[in-house]
Design a protein that fits this description.
Layout (H helix, E strand, L loop, with lengths): L1 E8 L5 E3 L9 E3 L8 E6 L2 E9 L12 E8 L21
Parallel strand pairs: 1-6
Antiparallel strand pairs: 1-2, 1-3, 4-5, 5-6
Length: 95
């Protein structure tokens, strides 16, 4: 089984999505961590610890061929910090 960290909330509130990460960055083989576990991730050239916030709940069973998507937050992120997600490239020009 494997898992892939697809979203990372950084301490400053920025949310990094899979489109900003290198292909297969933070993709791992092995037991999938559950919500609340702390794992090491890499983002923008640095490694740090992050807490699993979404994606795999205790006692959940996945087939061996599934890649479980996870969302994490950097350890130390203040829950009161507003999260900023990247824009999706909407076309705002007028015609």
């Amino acid at each position: 089984m494997s898992y892939w960290v697809k979203r990372i909330a950084l301490k400053d509130g920025k949310v990094v999505t899979e489109s900003e990460l290198r292909e297969n960055e933070n993709r791992f083989d092995g037991p999938v961590p559950v919500v609340g576990d702390v794992i090491e991730v890499q983002c923008h050239g640095r490694k740090f610890m992050a807490t699993v916030m979404w994606g795999n709940w205790p006692n959940r069973v996945h087939s061996d061929d599934v890649v479980v998507p996870l969302r994490v937050s950097e350890v130390g992120l203040d829950p009161a910090t507003p999260l900023r997600t990247p824009s999706r490239g909407l076309n705002t020009s007028s015609q």
